[in-house]
Amino acid sequence: MRSFAIVIIVFFSTTNLYESSYGQHLLTLEELDQTTVYTSIDEALRSPDRVFQLDLLTSDLKELPASIGKLKRLQRLFLYENQLKKLPPEIGELTNLQELYLDGNQLDALPPEIGKLSNLEVLGLHGNKLTVLPHEIIGLKKLKSIYLTENQITILPNEIGDLTNLESIDLAYNNIMYLPKNIGKLVHLKELFLTANKISKLPSEIGSLVSLEQLYADDNLLVYIPKEIGNLFNLKQLGLANNKLVSLPSTIGELVELKSLYLSGNQLKTLPEEIGNLLNLQNLFLSDNFLITVPKEMGKLKSLKELNLYNNHLTQLPIEFSELSNLENLGIGKNELKIIPESLANIHIY
Question: Which fold does the domain 19-349 belong to in CATH?
Answer without folding.
Answer: 3.80.10
